[in-house]
Design brief:
alpha+beta, 10 strands, six-stranded antiparallel β-sheet, 16% strand, binds fe (ii) ion
């Protein structure tokens, strides 16, 4: 579908939308995230002191942050979000909540300047709009969204003809000493108040900076929207996937959580809501020991985003 749209990959057309969420909405999202962080602790790490749990497990994207995203951004939240976006659009199934608590570091070891390397968003090979929303102030200190200012810098990150990004996280980390001076020189870092959002489309290169060391906390979330006219240029399996997801976000979240090993949340959903009873067998089929192991012994490992939604049996990639 991307081949059917004329893309200007040198565009740096992003827009800040002040008060995308009002104060009470910010509070509502913030409280819901806090509640789920506590609930995940109660489910899997009840023996740990809360501060130790929070300070060690919420520093980068990992299994817990994916679980947090799928637990929090349910159909109720997307209903609120849908009121604020173009009526002729769908929500893309890929969305993230980032709660990053940075520790004070004494080491002088040179760390990469970016937490999320410069890249383009082509989720499921669709032309999308990304919204990046701050729930706490986001700035240089906390780490924030950033955009290259010059064609020279963008040219280092242009994707290939199949729209695959030039670097993945590992490759960027290996090359960061060479790339970071160029990035620091030509990057725009965006400061956001709580509730404000930045919006950009698939043709805009972007990344996120790492927090300056200190006790900073960043709470942001991002999601993508697709205009119907763009979706309908796509393959039938992708159209069906996006439509089905929009019709029932909670079922898709449930299945993603089951695959991430979050059987405790899924068990509660089955007890609470008759709609989920049909998945009782599926959940019983999951090896709980293995699930416990996924979360308890490997909470900091980042699952591959390509494996999320693998239960749809669509071969998107
Ligand atoms: Fe992105």
């Amino acid at each position: 579908m991307l081949n059917k749209i004329k893309l200007n990959l040198y565009s740096n057309n992003y827009k800040v939308e002040k008060n995308f969420l009002n104060k009470s909405e910010v509070n509502y999202f913030y409280k819901s995230i806090r509640k789920e962080i506590k609930s995940i602790q109660k489910d899997y790490f009840p023996y740990m002191d809360f501060n130790r749990y929070f300070n060690t497990m919420y520093q980068l994207e990992n299994r817990l942050s994916r679980i947090l995203s799928y637990r929090v951004l349910n159909s109720e939240k997307f209903k609120k979000i849908k009121k604020k976006i173009d009526k002729n659009s769908f929500i893309n199934p890929l969305f993230y909540i980032h709660v990053f608590k940075k520790k004070k570091l004494n080491s002088k070891k040179s760390l990469p300047f970016l937490d999320t390397l410069l890249h383009y968003d082509f989720p499921y090979k669709l032309y999308a709009n990304t919204y990046w929303v701050g729930l706490l102030p986001a700035n240089e200190k906390t780490g924030t969204i950033c955009f290259p200012k010059t064609k020279k810098l963008i040219s280092k990150f242009l994707p290939n003809k199949k729209f695959i990004n030039k670097y993945n996280a590992e490759k960027y980390i290996q090359n960061h000493k060479k790339l970071d001076p160029l990035i620091k020189k030509d990057i725009n870092m965006i400061s956001l108040d709580p509730g404000s959002a930045v919006r950009w489309s698939s043709e805009v290169c972007h990344g996120a900076t790492r927090a300056e060391y200190g006790d900073s906390l960043r709470i942001t979330f991002n999601f993508r929207t697709i205009l119907k006219k763009h979706l309908y240029m796509s393959e039938p399996n992708i159209i069906k996937f996006v439509e089905d997801f929009n019709n029932d976000v909670d079922i898709y979240n449930f299945l993603n959580l089951a695959n991430l090993g979050d059987y405790k949340f899924c068990e509660r959903m089955i007890k609470k809501n008759k709609r989920f009873i049909k998945f009782k067998n599926y959940l019983n089929g999951l090896n709980k020991k293995k699930c416990d192991n996924l979360i308890k012994s490997n909470p900091l490992k980042t699952p591959n985003w390509r494996e999320e939604y693998s239960f749809t049996k669509n071969n998107f990639f």
